[in-house]
Amino acid sequence: MTTNKIKSNPFTTTPGVAGDAYINPHCADEIIQRFDDPSSTNYVYKILGLRGSGKSVEFAKVINYYCNKEDWLVYTLAASGNPLQTMVDIMSSESAILSTPTSVSKTVTGEMEANAFFVNSNVSGKMTQNFDNSEIPASYDARFQYLCRRLSEKKKILIGIDDIAKTHEMVHFLSVLNSVILNKSNNIRLICTGLEKNIEKFNDIDHLSFFARPEPKYISSIDLNEIELKYYEYFGISKDEAKKLAEVTKGYAWGYQLFGNELFESKDNDLEEVFYRFDKKMASTYTLIWKELSPEEKQFIRIVLEQPNGIAERAVIEPQIKGYSQHRKNLIAKHILSFEKGGIVSVELPRFREFIGE
User: Fold this and answer.
1) CB of 118 within 8 A of CB of 67?
2) Which of 9, 22, 167, 193 is the most buried (most CB within 10 A)?
3) Strands, DSSP E only, in 78-151?
4) For 241-272, what is each residue's pLDDT tens digit?
5) What is the percentage of the chain residues whose pLDDT exceeds 90?
6) Short-list 330, 311, 335, 331, CA closest to 252
């Protein structure tokens, strides 16, 4: 079947890494365009999507772009720990910028890119004092506001949080950030990713309207035509074969990369073997998705997958599921279910029938 027209594997199974076979959903491009626009009032972006939809790839693309911009400071925070304390500690180390009246070139080290700080939760609470900080307030809240103001006089600031979750420390950090980010003169931007159920938990906090109100950016399915073209180009197969392989992925980003990887690694072009390895490697992701569904949502999906071609009409499902409309809405919001005219629904996860049938 496949002939592998290229020698190196263009597909990646590393989370958050684009790889050569990356298909651009243009989510990161839009965010960068907005952040670069001095007249834009889009200070906060939340990238939402199903597990494996490519959220972290788009997040990393934005982060890496600004890591290479000399007029930006980029800080990426872990979702756990104490983000406020961590930010104060690491921002305090910018002594060259804080002590110099004019903009200076920064030299830093980090785990994401050469010009970025990767900040985790294992940072000491002691503040680094590498400059004359006699005017810095004592509390962490006030220190953070002070440092944001001072640093943004010289450079723009981007704060990134991948896979954000609601914790007491995160809520407090966002509360303090609220006091500085809406001041346009501070030049501060925030980008985060997360599952919709985790992002929604912040919406019931009155004083976090700056975070709740901006419309999230959803990572949708990849266009099957683009997947077909990639498989056609990489594997040297016919257009019909490429189309059939693309349809297997259902446009699911992780499914596209993983299936492409298994096809590339196949030694004897045995599709049955490829499907076997694909199903086994996809199981860990699907297990997490399945655990997050309610019993009614699981039953809803089972009914859909039991139908011919995995496509079901409302008339088939509604008599069997109490609260049909709400469960359908929830599954669509979670990007597990697609909805077409006439009440027709289908599951958007490749070979999910095989997973729940195990």
Assistant:
1) no
2) 193
3) 117-119
4) 999 999 999 999 999 999 999 999 987 778 99
5) 67
6) 335
Sort strands 117-119 and 72-77 into parallel, antiparallel or unpaired.
parallel
Alpha helix stretches (DSSP H) within 23-110: 27-36, 55-67, 83-92, 95-98
Q: Which sign, positive or negative, has the C-alpha torsion 299, 301, 306, 311? A: positive
Residue-wise pLDDT for 41-58, tens only, equals 899 999 999 999 999 999
Is residue 136 within 8 Å of residue 144, measured between CB atoms?
no
Note the pLDDT tens digit of each residue in 127-161.
434 444 445 556 889 999 999 999 999 999 999 99
Distance CA 157, CA 98 (A): 14
Instruction: Please tell me the predicted confidence (pLDDT) of residue 5.
Output: 65
Q: Are 98 and 148 in contact (CB under 8 A)?
A: no
Q: Which two tokens stand for residue 327?
A: 């469960």
Q: How far apart are CA 188 and CA 184, in angstroms?
A: 8
Of 84, 94, 65, 214, the closest CA to residue 161 belongs to 84
Q: Which residues have a Cβ under 8 Å from the Cβ of 65 and sit 6 or more positions away?
A: 28, 32
What is the sign of the dihedral through the CA atoms of 183, 68, 191 and 118?
negative
The angle subtended at Cα 175 by Cα 173 and Cα 178, nearest 5°, is: 110
CA atoms of 267 and 262, how far apart (whole Å): 10
Q: Are strands 337-340 and 311-312 parallel, antiparallel or unpaired?
A: unpaired
Q: What 3-state DSSP class applies to 145?
A: helix
Q: Torsion angle of alpha carbons 48, 50, 51, 55, nearest 10°?
A: -30
Q: Which two tokens stand for residue 112?
A: 């994401």
pLDDT for position 334: 84
d(CA 214, CA 199): 12
- Inter-residue contact 245 to 259 (CB < 8 Å): yes
